[in-house]
Amino acid sequence: MDADLGSYRKSYEKHELLLEDTPENPLELFQKWFFEVDKFFPEIETNAMTISTIGLDGYPKSRIVLLKKFTYEGFIFYTNYHSEKGKAISNNPHVCLSFFWHGAERQIIIKGKAKKIPDNLSDGYFESRPRGSQLGAIVSHQSEVIESREALELKLAELEKEYEGKEIPRPPYWGGFMVEPVEMEFWQGRPNRLHDRIRYTLTPEYDWTKNRLSP
User: Fold this and answer.
1) Burial class (CB in 10 A: 0-12, 13-18, 19+), 52
2) What is the pLDDT of residue 6?
3) Distance between CA atoms of 37 and 110, rounded to whole angstroms?
4) Distance (Å, whole) CA 105 – CA 12
5) E strand intervals along 18-152
6) What is residue 85's predicted lDDT score, i.e. its pLDDT?
7) How much is the pLDDT for 55?
8) pTM confidence score
9) According to the model, what pLDDT value does residue 36 have?
């Protein structure tokens, strides 16, 4: 196999990001960008983000998850705590989140520390999910080897009968993590690869400093 991709190029020309136009708190810029992308690029799943963890085997691993809430404290997503991802975070809570919104030619990279959110918050979100998603969280022993697709669907059918007309409880191994950011970098594509990069860094006094980076 030999694929030469040297001719793949795209010129980024839609926006600019100037240091003097950025707010003091990066969460405010995140919110601005997020809702701009959500409004003007409806074909994009705006809350899809990549989370990178350091696995128990020492290797980094990245995968897509869905952001479900963000506040001034951090970014919340939900998962199976016993999954490969959940075990990696429990072993090493330092993670990286990234958003790439190609339509807007924007990227955000977030370094932070993940921690479990309180059970009552996980309960509240679980109760808001469709029943099929609730049952899926119980059926799936995420990241484990399974016998077949058919065995998975059979287990789902059995649970549908078991919980017919009943409330479905949140399994204790499923819930939310909040990533509290310590560094956030905003990237805006520009012509000639002279991209705009603004990096915010959290100080020991919990203030944010910001700098322009070379592209």
Assistant:
1) middle
2) 81
3) 18
4) 7
5) 48-54, 60-66, 69-70, 75-80, 94-101, 106-116
6) 97
7) 97
8) 0.92
9) 97
The letter for the amino acid at 22 is T
Between the CA atoms of 18, 212, 183 and 42, what dihedral angle is there, to the nearest 10 degrees? 30
Exposure string of 54-68, with b = 16+ CB inside 10 Å and e = fewer, is beeeeeeeeeebebe
Task: Check if the beta carbon of residue 127 is closer than 8 Å to that of residue 136.
Answer: no
Below-50 pLDDT ranges, the chain: none
For residue 91, how many other CB atoms are within 10 A of its CB? 11
Q: Which of 99, 92, 35, 18 is nearest to 64 (CA)?
A: 99
Cα separations in angstroms, 192 against 12, 102, 178, 184: 8, 17, 37, 24
Give the residue from 23, 102, 40, 89 showing the smallest Cα distance to 61. Answer: 89
* DSSP-derived 3-state class of residue 30: helix
Round to whole Å and give the CA distance between 49 and 35. Answer: 15
Active site residues: 193
For residues 105 and 119, give the distance between their C-alpha atoms in angstroms, rounded to a whole number. 37
Q: Position of tokens 């789902």?
A: 156
